[in-house]
Every structure is written in C-alpha cells, then in structure tokens.
C-alpha cells in the first residue's frame, strides 16, 4: 500500500488506520519523514 505517500501526516495515517482496522489490529504505516511506525494504537519510535 502507499499510505506513506498518500498520508505523509502520521495523524491522518493513524486516523485512516483506525477506519481500516476497527477491531484494533495494528496496520503499520511507515512515516518516512519521522521514521516512526504508525498503528491504530498510536506511534512508536
């Protein structure tokens, strides 16, 4: 998927992740700018 390209803002990515995975399963999204992994539970460095 190209979420890291479509959603460079980790907040937008996290919000979309919650919409995609409403059951709480993490969907990692790499934010190339921050170098962090975004999940529906928040951010981890």
Describe the protein:
The protein has helices spanning 3-6, 10-20; strands at 29-31, 36-39, 42-44. By secondary structure, the protein is α+β, with helices and mostly antiparallel strands. The chain has a three-stranded antiparallel beta sheet, with helices on one face. The N and C termini lie far apart (21 Å).
What's the quick description here?
This protein is α+β, with helices and mostly antiparallel strands. The chain has helices at 3-6, 10-20, and strands spanning 29-31, 36-39, 42-44.
Find the structural class using helix and strand composition.
alpha+beta
The major sheet is characterized as: 3 strands, antiparallel
Query: Which residues sit in consecutive blocks of at least 5 with pLDDT less than 50?
Result: none
Mean pLDDT over the residues: 58
Radius of gyration: 9 Å
Compute the number of strand runs: 3
SSE order, one letter for each helix or strand: HHEEE
Number of helices: 2
State the end-to-end distance.
21 Å
Identify the overall geometry.
Answer: globular
Report the sheet-strand fraction. Answer: 15-25%
Strand order of the largest sheet: 1-2-3
Helix content: 25-40%
């Amino acid at each position: 998927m190209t979420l890291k390209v479509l959603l460079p803002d980790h907040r937008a990515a996290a919000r979309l992740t919650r919409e995609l995975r409403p059951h709480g399963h993490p969907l990692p999204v790499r934010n190339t700018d921050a170098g962090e992994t975004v999940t529906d539970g928040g951010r981890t460095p």
